[in-house]
Amino acid sequence: MRKRFIVALTVGLAIPAFVLSRVIWPDPPGTAAPPPGLLPLLMVPAIFEALAFGVGVAFLISTGRALVRHQAGRLSVAAIGTYLYTTIVQQRTAAVDRGTHAAPAQARP
Fold first, then answer.
1. Which letter does DSSP use for residue 73 in this model?
2. How many CB atoms neighbour CB 101 within 10 A?
3. Contact (CB, 8 A) for 10 and 55
4. pLDDT at 77
5. DSSP label at 70?
6. For residue 61, which of 78, 77, 85, 84 has the smallest C-alpha distance?
7. How far apart are CA 2 and CA 14, in angstroms?
8. Interatomic CA distance for residues 107 and 109, integer angstroms
9. Closest Cα to residue 46, out of 24, 62, 65?
10. Separation CA 48–CA 18 (nearest Å)
11. How high is the pLDDT of residue 16?
12. How far apart are the C-alpha atoms of 18 and 14, rounded to whole Å?
């Protein structure tokens, strides 16, 4: 894939991720707001998080397509679905191992 497409995809996904991050993950009720003087400083990590999201999705699209085609011999819906599913499960498992997300609830007998 072309480099311009990757950059455009990264930035194109980073902008909505940055804008919608407070909508998707609102503050818990009752938490104190940071002082107004710190808000510009707190936007810097949020921008990097949004860019990291864009880079991750661009990587999945650009590299994943070549990997799936190489492994499956042809590009099929099942191969793409399998690649995306294993990527999501691996990311979720890594987040649980780091302690940044709660482990899924275990089924009770």
1. S
2. 13
3. yes
4. 74
5. H
6. 84
7. 18
8. 7
9. 24
10. 9
11. 92
12. 6
Output the 3-class SS for 7-62. Answer: HHHHHHHHHHHHHHHHHHCCCCCCCCCCCHHHHHHHHHHHHHHHHHHHHHHHHHHH
pLDDT in tens, 70-105: 666 666 777 777 777 777 766 666 555 555 555 555
> How many residues make up the chain in this entry?
109
Is the distance from CB of 6 to CB of 56 less than 8 angstroms? no
What average pLDDT does range 28-37 have in this prediction? 85
Which helix (DSSP H) or strand (DSSP E) does residue 89 occupy? helix 77-98
**Residue 17, token pair as written in the block:** 């991720």
Yes or no: say if 60 and 87 are a contact pair by the CB < 8 Å rule: yes
Cα–Cα distance measured from residue 59 to residue 5, given in angstroms and rounded to the nearest whole number: 11
Given the structure tokens 């482990």, which residue do they identify?
Answer: 103
Spatial separation of the C-alpha atoms in residues 81 and 68, rounded to whole Å: 10
pTM of the model: 0.62
